[in-house]
Amino acid sequence: MFKRVLFTALFLFSASNLRAQLNVYIVNVGQGDAIYVEFPNGTNALVDGGPSGELIYKFLKEKGVTKIDRVLLTHPHSDHYRGLKKVFSSFDVKSFYDTKAENRDAVGDNNLRELAALEPDCKTYFPEPATELKWDSQVTVKVLNSCFEPVIIHDNDENNNCSMVIRLYYNGNGILLMGDSEATVENAMMRIYKSGLRSSILKVSHHGSRYSSTAPFLARVQPKYAYISVGLGNVYGHPHKEALDRIRAAGAKILFTTAGTQSFTIPAPAKGMPFPAEPIINNVNMTADQKFEDMTLTWTPPVSMDSNSPALNQLADFSAPDNAVK
Question: Is residue 4 part of a domain?
Answer without folding.
Answer: no
